[in-house]
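User: Study the fold:
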Amino acid sequence: MQAFRNAMARYYPERQGLLSAWELEGWAGAQWLTDAMDPCGSDLTRACVEHFMNSGTPYDAHGLLLPAAFTHAPRPSGPTRACLDAARWDDSANDGRGGWVTQVPDMTTTCFEVPQLPYRP
């Protein structure tokens, strides 16, 4: 979270105080793509990136997201378990240097059964 906030402060200082979950998810998505491209080295091809993305290995954007993987799944037919977490700034964190602290010890502890809707382009 701190790397995201530092980058946004550096490159988009006018966004301070206006950051949203959408921006964080965009950051995580770009990180996912970057991590998928990295092992390709100089052989950066779509096939190489797809190999990483389609591996089925859960990816958490270095702890920013609940682990997710690109997998083919059947059309949703009922509720699904969805989890959430929140972080807040604490001036006393990190030995008084300040930092982001999560509100629960594990992102999988605040979960709900919610309707799962199919994607419709």
Notes: The two ends are 31 Å apart (CA to CA). DSSP finds four helices and four strands in the chain. The CA atoms of residues 88 and 95 lie 16 Å apart. The first strand starts at residue 79 and ends at 83.
